[in-house]
Amino acid sequence: MTLEVFKKLPLGGVDRRAIVPALAERGLNTARAKLADERKIVALAGATIPKDVAVIILGGSNGITRGLAVQLVFGEHASVFCVHLDSEKMQIGPHHATAISEAAAAEGLTARFFNADATKPDTITQVIDAIKADPRGFRAVHFINGIAAGATKRYAEHGPTQVKDLDVSFDMVLQTPDFSDPVNIRKVGLVDVEVATDVDIERTNKFMGTSSMLWAGPLAEAGLLSENESIIAFCDYDYPPDDPVYAMGPLAGAKKLQRETMLQIMARYHVKTVRLCYPAVATTALGAIPGGLLMFGMTAQVLHERGQFKGIALLSVDAMNIFKPGFNAGELRLDGAYQAALPEFYARRDALTSNDLPGAFSRLYR
What we know:
single chain; alpha/beta; 7-stranded parallel β-sheet; two-stranded antiparallel ribbon
C-alpha cells in the first residue's frame, strides 16, 4: 500500500491563533490540575540530598525535566532552581512553572523558575547569585541538563529522506500529543526529513552539546561544585545507530559532544557525571521529530501490553536513583523495557497501514 506524504506540523497543526486565548483562559488551571494528578504518584524515592545542596535543572517547565522538578520538590523536598525558555503567551511552560512554585511555597518548599536562555552568561550569573543569596546557605549543587532545542534534521552527506509517522491531534493547552481518543489518530503516512543548515548545526551543538560546560566553570568558581559529591547529569536518548533522524544529523553530533563534555567536567572538577537514558515519552517535542509520534505511540502500545509502560511521573521516581548512596555508575538506564521492545516496534511499524488505525493503539485510549 502506498503511503500518503503529509506535512508534519508543530503541535499537530493546532491553530496558533487559538493558543493565546486558550492559554490565557485555561493555562494555569490546567497546569494546577495536572500537578495535582501527578502528586498522587509522587512519593519519597529515597534520594539523599542534604538540605544545604540545591538542584539546578535546565528545563523544568515541561516534559521530562518538569517531571524531575515535581519529584524532587514534592517527593524528595529538595530545593530546585529551574531555567527554562518559554513564550509567556504561546507555551504552557510558564503556567507549569507558576503552578509548581506556588504549590511549593504553600508547603514551605523551594521551586524557583527563571524564564531565560540558559546559555547566556547573564542567566548563569543570575541563578548562581540567587543560590548564593538564599538564606538556606547552600554550599553545593547538583545539576541536570535537559535542554531540548535541537534540529531534527540530517547532515548534508546523508541528504533528505522520508520516514513513517502518525498524524496525531495535540491538546491545545497542555501541548502534548493526545492518544487518549482514537479519533485523534488521524493518519499514518510519510513525513519529510530535511537537511540541516550550518546555523541549525551550530545552534544544536550550543544548546544540546556544550551547554553543561558553560555552567560547570562558573559553578566551580562560585564554590558550588563539591568534589565527589555534586552530580552533573543530562537527559539522553540512546537512539539506534541506523535511526534516519537521530543518528544522521545534528542531534547525534550534539549527543556526542554532550558525552565528551561530561568526561571533561568529571576530570576537571572531580564530580560525578551521569547520563539519564530515557525512552520515547509523550512530550511537546514529538510534534517536531519526524517519526517521533509513531515511535512513542507504538512502543507505548507494546509496553502497555507487556505491563511495563511508565509515564514521565514514574520515570522521574526511578531517576532519583542517581541521588542514592552508593550510586556511582556513569549512566542510569530508564529505558530498559523500551529498548527490549524495539524489535517488536520495528515489526509493527513496518507493517502498519491506514487499515490498522485506530486499533493498533488501543491500549492508549481512555
